[in-house]
Amino acid sequence: MELALLYSGGKDSTLAALLLDEFYDVTLVTGTFGVTDEWEHARDTAETVGFPFERVDLDRGVARDAVERMREDGYPRNGIQRVHDHALERVAEREVDAVADGSRRDDRVPTVSRAEAQSLEDRHGVDYIAPLSGFGRGAVDRLVDATLELDVGPSDEIHRADYEGELRALLADRHGPEAVAEVFPDHEQTRVTGVRE
Q: What pTM value is reported for the model?
């Protein structure tokens, strides 16, 4: 069975791919608005961990709307959720049996409710799978420590293909660099550099 997994090159989506690989033919898919080339980091990580990779183009209007929402809210949560929902829709349009992401049980964003998952499945004839949805952060971190090699650092230094990099670039372009600091809290990101033997 063919499965398309939304992929950033980070620990959660990579761990999700490893868990699903036993049951599906997994292709790692990164959505991009064409604003930056950060999607290339996900492609390189997919090659490093041994999965096929594809890129899907997302609607730049969705990114612009998300940026304006984040600016209005003063935080990124709703904007990132909107982009994630759009990316899932785009991936579900592909000729696959299932779509997945690396969302965890205790993630605040992005999330997919039961009703949203069922709607996605019904409208596109796919299964939606969130293999980490039963895992909390501590469990994920322990599995990652045992399985993956990582680069860890501030989000403005660790380049990977989550939506944040492109949204930061659009926000800075539309509202200036200071808007990025106002909207996005400082936090660490991860990029997978290998799988432990």
A: 0.92
